[in-house]
Design a protein that fits this description.
Mean pLDDT: 90
Shape: globular
Radius of gyration: 30 Å
Oligomer: single chain
Structural class: mainly beta
Number of helices: 12
Number of strands: 52
């Protein structure tokens, strides 16, 4: 990104904010609660027919400039209050408007369920929403963390700057089955294939609303919405004007046993943001945002020995073949004569990665109303930061940046949008590879000479063997500890200049010779939507739309086979939706269908059908049939990575393996192991030639299909209603069937044909296996097995007469593997039970409010490639978040004192990820000044 160019753009935006355009009059007033006689900050006021509005400030006051003379109509709304329409005959006279408290939030408007505005109660599928007030008053440190309090949500923390959201099972730390949009823009770095939490997202000051659609949403949102979609909306500069500033300071790592920094080990946390928006008349508006967060990340310090070749009772720190979960370099293991299995001495993660993390977000937007009903928008976002991410390894996503541009034209019935995402990995690296590579820089031969990296592992094990066997006069034989000490002579120690020099050198080397990661992948996307309802004379509600996306991958050969140039491919999709109200508007039927085509795969059609029956205005029942699919990520398709002299990871797109004869001519790894074991048992009895002939038919030709999208079919029923004047309920049950899960399988490819002319395994190919001339490949493919998952959620909200709001929700999730092979199924990675309880009051005392949220979930097994698909237990845990706020209306300021994980329980949310403790903070927010 050209920083100077964007700095000039921001400076220009600030400059033009000083220009004043003449206004005829201003509509001003005060919005109040008629019972408490207190002002209502955050109420929305719109001039009907002018597409012009604002929100009340902390004093409940508002001011809207308008050129129109004569009578006006104001529409006033606020969550928790009944909407109101007010006629204005004299715009110069200040107004006092009273909003009556609503008995529930059932009349809230949502967009995400059907891509059009509709009442929450009549949404055809389950949907959750956080409005501007919920965002402002969340007890969590950020609004994004507060999403965890919505029912059905699973949030996994990989680090202070990276949290991943999932719904309805099959969770992961990098969730490519879940779509995340900000103002309609997919904010995933294309090379990742999933959104990196809110690292490249919205600041709290600019977040206006959040809608969560759990479950298959591909019929409306395409292949990425396999398990659901999260839709975040930023604040419109026409409505939310003025200067807003946030200063938040806190501490974490209190009493952290893994940090040696005094009795408390506390670390400073900073999160600061600024937003300015200005509208000039009813035509032009702009906004600029900047936010910066810095802190000390959570530590991954689980040193459990996970070496599956060692009996469980013999594992631990004294195991010569120890493979510590968060220790890297000790994965390199050999079986040595007499000594048995031995691993190299590894390095702790905290000595390999940088736990000082930050997140920088800059964005600006220009809005121009061509006509009162036609608006043009240009927005630019630039984000850069550091995170520690748990994937197949632990990665330091260091200095990673994402640049986005968006152009949009939108009217009352349509929008057309174009956007681009471009990523740059900068100094990111793989901590496991770093540990292994450092271990290859210092090894000495028996003469004391440092050997080259390609000989380091062999030399280290040779030293260990010599010491253990008693051939080294100064070392006691058959002593594992003494043998390791001898083999480790010259080992680089963390913190020394030599260690740091090698660490810095290797992280700068990208590819198999180092630990660095390069990705300069980009994508651009165009989409549009048109509402045909009025054009069809309101016979039915009809919505159509489509999109086109192009990927451009470049890793310079470090991950993909792209040294010769970028890998470019595209996909497109189109959808239609028809809704019809029947039975005097009590029954609403909706049918949707979408067709998607990726150039590497067959086209897919994903339908959805739903019905909503409103027995009364208080009781609403819904049922739906939903389908979803997920295209393989760029890595699933195009990775071509050598991870050793005989092993290559190969993506499943047909073009990625063209000419390599792997999918066509290989044996399964399982059958190759059986052949090798049988040959070894016979060779001393009958000789090598006969042993080969006796066992070659154990070899089995692989039948691995090229990769294809995953599929899901799901059925859901639900109820949303008001049981009495103060208690509302929302409940649902779903059942889904999944197939075509993307997975890895290992095959062995010889040079000779795997089958002879008789259709049986070829003896020449079998001989190549014995001679070590066959190549191992880890292939991306799909499994044909079917599995099912079901679940239910129940949410209750109760408002007391005294103004307290109490919420409780629970989620039950169940996975049925049926008759599937466990190796062919994605990990469910979801607790069976979890629950949230919230309690809050906006005015427990004059200008004082509070909110408390408690989260609990059951223990469960976590399976991921980080631990070679071996299950690891995530213990049950609970989190308590709380905040108390004090409003100073005269200063337009809110002071907040809060804590996440108030009880400071160090909890692990994914096996191999860090233990997350408490964060305690104080913030001050100045809002809507200089309007």
């Amino acid at each position: 990104m050209n920083i100077k160019k964007h700095a000039l753009l921001y400076a220009w935006l600030w400059l033009i904010s000083t220009v004043t355009m003449a206004q005829s009059v201003k509509v001003t007033g005060l919005v109040m609660d008629p019972v408490t006689r207190k002002p209502l900050p955050g109420a929305s006021i719109i001039i009907k027919g002018q597409n012009k509005g604002t929100v009340t400030d902390h004093t409940g006051s508002f001011s809207i400039p308008t050129n129109r003379t004569g009578p006006l109509t104001l529409q006033i709304s606020m969550v928790g209050y009944e909407p109101q329409t007010v006629s204005v005959t004299s715009a110069n006279a200040p107004l006092t408007i009273h909003l009556n408290s609503a008995t529930s939030e059932l009349d809230e408007v949502v967009v995400g369920a059907s891509r059009v505005e509709e009442r929450l109660v009549r949404a055809p599928v389950t949907i959750e929403k956080m409005d501007a007030r919920s965002i402002r008053e969340t007890p969590s440190a950020t609004f994004y963390e507060g999403i965890n309090n919505l029912k059905g949500v699973d949030m996994v923390t990989s680090g202070l700057t990276y949290r991943q959201i999932n719904t309805r099972g099959f969770a992961s730390t990098g969730n490519s089955r879940f779509l995340q949009l900000i103002d309609g823009v997919d904010n995933q770095p294309a090379g990742f294939g999933f959104s990196v939490g809110n690292m490249f997202g919205l600041s709290d000051l600019d977040a206006e609303s959040v809608e969560l659609v759990p479950g298959a949403a591909s019929a409306l949102y395409g292949p990425a919405a396999f398990n659901g979609a999260l839709l975040m909306t930023s604040k419109d500069p026409f409505t939310y004007q003025g200067l807003s500033v946030q200063a938040k300071v806190g501490v974490n790592h209190l009493n952290d046993p893994n940090r040696n920094a005094g009795p408390t080990g506390a670390a400073i946390y900073n999160d600061h943001a600024i937003r300015y928006a200005k509208a000039f008349g009813n035509r032009f508006a702009f906004k600029v945002n900047a936010s910066y967060m810095r802190g000390l990340d959570w530590f991954a310090t689980d040193y459990t020995d996970v070496n599956q070749s060692t009996p469980s009772e013999q594992r631990g720190a004294q195991n010569p073949a120890r493979n510590g979960l968060n220790i890297y370099g000790d994965e390199v293991v050999r079986t040595l004569p007499g000594a048995g299995q031995v691993s190299r001495t590894g390095y702790l993660e905290k000595d390999l990665t940088d736990y000082n993390v930050y997140s920088l977000k800059l964005n600006g937007a220009l809005h121009y109303r061509i006509t009162p009903k036609l608006e043009a928008i240009y927005a630019v976002n630039y984000a850069k930061g550091t995170a520690n991410y748990t994937g197949s390894n632990r990665f330091s996503v260091n200095g990673f940046s994402l640049t986005q541009h968006r152009l949009e034209i939108r009217g009352k019935q349509f929008f057309v949008r174009w956007y681009s995402n471009a990523e740059d990995s900068h100094d990111s690296y793989n901590t496991r590879s770093l540990g292994q590579q450092i271990n290859r820089t210092w090894v000495r031969d028996l003469n004391g000479n440092v050997v080259t990296p390609d000989k380091a592992d062999d030399t280290w094990f040779a030293r260990y063997t010599a010491a253990y066997s008693g051939t080294i006069p100064t070392v006691t034989g058959t002593d594992q500890t003494a043998a390791r000490t001898f083999a480790d002579q010259g080992r680089l120690l963390p913190g020394t200049p030599e260690y740091e020099a090698q660490k810095n050198r290797l992280t700068a080397i990208q590819g198999s010779a180092g630990a660095g990661i390069l990705s300069q992948t980009s994508m651009w996307h165009a989409d549009g939507q048109y509402n045909l309802t009025s054009a069809l004379n309101n016979v039915a509600d009809v919505l159509v739309g489509g999109n086109f996306r192009q990927y451009s991958l470049f890793t310079n050969g470090t991950l993909f086979d792209d040294k010769g140039g970028r890998i470019i491919y595209h996909e497109f999709g189109a959808f239609a939706q028809i809704s019809k109200a029947l039975l005097a508007d009590k029954l609403k039927l909706t049918v949707s269908g979408r067709y998607d085509k990726n150039q590497n795969f067959a086209g897919y059609f994903t339908p959805r059908a739903s019905a909503v029956y409103s027995a009364t205005d208080r009781h609403h029942f819904r049922a739906s049939y939903q389908t979803g699919f997920r295209n393989p990520t760029p890595s699933d398709q195009f990775i071509k990575l050598s991870v050793g002299p005989t092993v290559t990871i190969l993506g499943g797109a047909p073009s990625n393996s063209a000419g390599m004869n792997v999918y066509e001519n290989s044996y399964t790894a399982t059958s190759a192991n059986l052949f090798g074991a049988g040959f070894g048992a016979d060779v001393n009895k009958v000789g090598p030639q006969q042993a080969l002939l006796n066992n070659k038919d154990k070899l089995q030709k692989s039948n691995v299909p090229y990769i294809a999208p995953e599929r899901v079919n799901s059925f859901e029923i639900g109820y949303r209603g008001l049981l009495n004047s103060r208690l509302s309920v929302d409940a649902n049950y779903y059942y889904g069937v999944y197939t075509n899960f993307i997975l890895n399988t290992v095959v062995l490819r010889p040079d000779s044909p795997v089958l002879g002319s008789d259709g049986k395994p070829n003896a020449a190919a079998a001989q190549e296996i014995l001679n070590g001339k066959a190549q191992l490949f880890q292939l991306y493919t799909n499994a044909p097995d079917k599995v099912s998952a079901q679940g239910a959620t129940l949410g209750l909200t109760y408002r007391t007469a005294g103004g307290y709001q109490i919420g409780a929700n629970g989620t039950w999730s169940s996975f049925n593997i049926r008759n599937a092979d466990p190796n062919n199924v994605a990990a469910f990675n979801t607790p069976r039970f979890k629950t949230n309880v919230t309690l809050g009051h906006r005015n427990i005392a004059p200008n004082i409010g509070f909110n408390v949220a408690w989260h609990w979930q059951e223990s469960f097994d976590w399976v991921s490639s980080f631990n070679a698909l071996i299950p690891g237990r995530v213990p049950a845990y609970h989190l308590l978040d709380a905040q108390v706020n004090y409003r100073v209306p005269s200063l337009k300021t809110v002071l907040k004192l809060g804590a996440t994980n108030l009880t400071n329980q160090y909890v692990v949310q994914a096996y191999g990820s860090p233990a997350v403790g408490g964060l305690y903070y104080v913030s001050i927010v100045f809002d809507q000044g200089l309007k």
